[in-house]
Design a protein that fits this description.
The protein is mainly alpha-helical. 77% of the residues lie in helices and 0% in strands. The radius of gyration is 15 Å and the shape is globular.
Length: 116
Amino acid sequence: MQIIKGVLTVFIVFVYSVAFSHPDGMKPYWYPSTYIYGFVSGCAETVEQTRAPVTEELWPDGVRAVCSCVVDALRHSVTFAEAKDDSMKPKMQVIVDATFPICVEQVKSDLANATN
């Protein structure tokens, strides 16, 4: 029962984040490069400090690629003005939580294709 609740939660989070994102093919919202750099650095540091399992396979460059993918998802979902607004943090966290595993799989796939 716990697994079903977990899967359902992830599905709802994913649908929620997709519902608020730009349609496919749309240009992402503009974010300053300092924000993007800070997000990627902070994300990678957090992943390293929590010793997430992904670090065993992807550390360090792969984790940065995952974090870059996540910030790109944010740029398709939230304007920079909204990203700076503290009241948007819960929505942004939902997007991060939903896209992080997807980005991990994408980076793993990209790395596997690059070695073939």
